[in-house]
Amino acid sequence: MADSQTDERKAPAGIERFVRQLVVAMKAVVLYPRASAIPRENAATAAELLGKQLRDVAEIRFSVTKDGLVYEGAMIFAEQQAFESFAREMYNRNIAEVRFHSGVTANDVLGFLSILLVPPAELAEAGGAENRLWELGVDAISIKQASARIVDTLLPTDGVVVDSPLQPSRMDELLAAGPAARPRDQRMLTRLIGDPDTIGAYFMETLVGRGTDPNAALKHLKLGELAFAAQRAEAHHRALLHRTIAEAIASLPVDVRRELITQRLLPEARTDESLAAIVRQMDIDDVCRMLVEGLTDDEMSVEGLSRAIRNLAMMSLAERDDVVNAAGAAMRGAGLAEETVGAVLEAVSPSVLQVRERHADDVDQPVDSILKLVDLAPGEITHRFDEDSDYVTLQEESRRGLTDGDVIGALVTLVAVNLQGQYFPSIMALLEDGLSLVIERGDYDVAADAAESISEVLKSLDLPHEQRQRLSEAMAKLATPAQLAEVVKAMRVYRAGTPEYASCQRLLTALGGDLIDPMLEVLADEPDMTARKSMVDLLSGMAAGYVDELARRITDPRWYFVRNVVAILGSTRQAAILPALGRTVLHPDARVRRETIRALAGVPDRLALEMLVAFLDDADAQNVQLAARYLGSSKDLGCVPALEQVARGEGRGNRDIGPRTEAIEALGRIAAPGSIPLLESLAGKRVILGRASVRELKAAADQALRAMAQTRERGAR
User: Fold this and answer.
1) Closest Cα to residue 609, out of 624, 627, 587?
2) Contact, 277 vs 231, CB < 8 A?
3) pLDDT score of 235 more than 80
4) Which residues pair with residue 75 across a beta bridge?
């Protein structure tokens, strides 16, 4: 049983109310069928109580023992059977800790509680509670499993002794995968970064515990990847993750911490915004104290300290004078000699600027300097260079400033004017070799010029088949998935209106239909949501001319790929896309069907309305609600009978409270006189035992009747 010290503590009242409601929701999940609204109502209440507690903190954390839940060292409702049994269900499934993060919904609560209904042996065989939570898509609740044991009695460390399941090599793997990692692994990495103890242990194991050379370990520490992973998190979580990493660095031993800050963090933060965000979470005085702790007066240490403080000033962590003052105070506080303090501060902010004199030889052109290296070669090699006509030609081109892009442009021009000439195959061979490099080197203007020129040549009706095929193959070299991925990346890096962005646009326009298939493949493999959004927008802008090409990809087995294709087709708002959307009406994934509803809503066609009516029989509640909402906005009288059936809760498909309420509201917007008796009957229903579902239907029906009355009044004026 818990010791007296823990029993004297008491959890906050808000936390106790949340745990009590969580237990009530658990009982509802056990007693009522899945289709019942009671478990969801109780889960929604629990989520609401939790939201109030999460206004001031980032997470609520409970430790699990077989005697109950522990919050900040306090047992929740100690020795009460119901709460002990609830905690024992988690204990038996090797759950050591539960964290509730901001944004928890009723679905998240129900998903978490459903895990406690799975037999422990079956759960362990399926990969454990943590794995099941990821499979359910619950991101706002995370758990930590005990890999070895859970101590039955309460200890000062939250009552749980957990053998850490995270190996440093596993953290390295997660960081190395980067944006290409599975979503589940990315979420796991975000959770790990949010734990200062885990990150501190990773730093210590990497820098000290692996038995390697400390300098080599410091060099190979995945610090940049760690910061970038934090930067990829949602905007409202980034500051917390950056602060967690900063706290983990601050917790390291003095010598390890100073080496990490001076050799890696500050130098790299000058050019890496994600690392700079970590440094900005540190107080300038604390950083300076960390830098001077244990510092000696030797020349190398002083030089390293000067370099670190200069980096601090360049990062604009604070005003330059503030950085200098903080560094001076820290050095004096550490007992360094005044001469050392003066030398460091002079190196950081010199009172006299030293300007290096330039000699006449320094004005030589870079090309001349490079060619001089050739002159230093042994005589025999130099002699061979002088006799080599290609070398002499290259030397002259370099002096005139010719680039590889100029060569590609000249080759494209030669191809255009020499289609029937004997040198066409040779010129095309040179052009094909060069085209694969221009995008990799960032010569987007050259690639755009080449694509436009080749596209114009291909429009010629009298172009021989052999030449047409050869030019098409050259065009395809600019439209490979790898090349297009670089172009899309450049369009995110450069702002609209810049020459680079305009060149990328010209290139994609010139490629035309050749880029549809490879661009879709790039879209399917892109893990970054922002990048996917930009590609969908890009393809949507040209989709109207390539409906058939896009429609062919509807049968792809990847649901997320098909959803993107449907979104792109929907952007056209053309009736021509309806045959393709007719194939996704019955797609096995509800998310694809939901995107189909959105696409249909934008097509002004009678067939599109009929397809939306068919979605009122969908098995997914969100899909039925969305279809009803769009049908209500259309104000088409033909869909009234189907909406009335949903409002009554009859027929096939999902008929939960959400779809019925949406259908009632849609009837109110359409304002068909024949729907008034149904709405009046729903509005006049008696509330039995205070059921929330009946109250919601009554309120929706009352609102719909008022909306219809207002519509009639406007029509009478």
Assistant:
1) 627
2) yes
3) no
4) 70
532 SS3 class:
helix
d(CA 487, CA 479): 10
DSSP state for residue 178 in the 8-state scheme = G
pLDDT in tens, 388-433: 666 666 666 555 555 666 677 677 776 666 666 666 777 777 776 6
How far is residue 516's CA from residue 304's CA, in Å, rounded to a whole number? 53
How far is Cα 212 from Cα 206, in angstroms, rounded to an integer?
9
**Whole-angstrom distance, CA of residue 433 vs CA of residue 542:** 29
Block residue for tokens 């000290």: 208
Q: How far apart are CA 347 and CA 301, in angstroms?
A: 13
Could you tell me which residues are beta bridge partners of residue 145?
Answer: 95
CA distances from 294 to 333, 334, 457, 708 (A): 12, 8, 72, 79
266's tokens: 């500050």
pLDDT digits (tens, 9 = 90+) for 552-579: 888 888 888 888 889 888 888 888 889 8
Q: Using the 8-state DSSP alphabet, how is residue 208 labeled? A: I
Backbone CA torsion sign across 166, 168, 173, 177: positive
Q: Which residue type is seen at 328?
A: G
> How many C-alpha atoms does 421 have within 13 Å on its Cβ side?
11
Asked if residue 543 lies in contact with residue 484, where contact means CB atoms within 8 angstroms, the answer is: no
Amino acid at 646: V
Instruction: Give me Rg for the CA atoms of the chain.
Output: 34
- Longest Cα separation, the chain: 106
Q: Does position 150 have pLDDT exceeding 60, yes or no?
A: no
3-state secondary structure 574-604: CHHHHHHHCCCCCCCCHHHHHHHHHHHHCCC
